[in-house]
Amino acid sequence: MIFVDIQKELEQFTLDVKLHIQENEFIVLSGTSGSGKTTLLRVLAGLEDTKGFIEVDGETWNSKTKKLPTQKRSIGFVTQDYALFENMSVERNLLFAQNDKNLAKELLELTELTSLKHLFPSQLSGGQKQRVALCRALMKKPKVLLLDEPLSALDAKIRLKLQEELLVLHKRFHLTTIMVTHDKNELEKVASRVVYIERGKVVSKKEQQEQRVLQFVKKQKNKLVFESQNEIFYFDLEKENILEQIVLYK
What we know:
By secondary structure, the protein is of the alpha/beta class. It has helices spanning 37-45, 90-97, 101-110, 126-137, 156-172, 184-190, 205-220, and strands at residues 2-9, 14-21, 26-30, 51-56, 59-62, 75-78, 144-148, 176-180, 193-198, 201-203, 225-228, 231-236, 241-247. Helix content is 32%, strand content 28%. The radius of gyration is 20 Å and the shape is globular.
């Protein structure tokens, strides 16, 4: 179980998040760009300071009197830029994180990288690099896996394949996974629960939709109606709120 109750002043708003996450959940953080999702991941990883409280499986990671260093937190963190060691082979990248050849062998097999284990990152495709990054993040058998849009730079076919592999790894290693994504299909495929964040706060799905539509309307300025897939929104531009929302069942 993860308990989060944190407050962090950002440039345009305060990140103020209260969140309970069950063990082995696959949480997806959804929200507009700049809403605080990546900052929340970095706070959980101990890469940014925050006020408030974080507890993971009974261990305090952050409080008024304590901040557990990043290296002592049981986390794996994967971003979209891979961050691999270019002078090391695939296998050495994994073993550098933790010298466990049996675990490295299992991870390489699960992600279909065994035949590539002696290659260097410069010889790999984007999808292969991201597989290596995922494997390396799991070498210390973390309790929590943090994923910051890890698949966003990949093409659709590779993304689908890696989404499946993510779910396999999540279940195989009994992880609690927290992932940021802007991809609706990805969200629906992997998430056991979606947490919507707007301007630093956890909101309902309806509130998030309103925020997204208001941002669109502000850009369009002269448009009073916005249609999104199966919904039509009508606006009061002066008050910046939604007068009426009609859900269309197609």
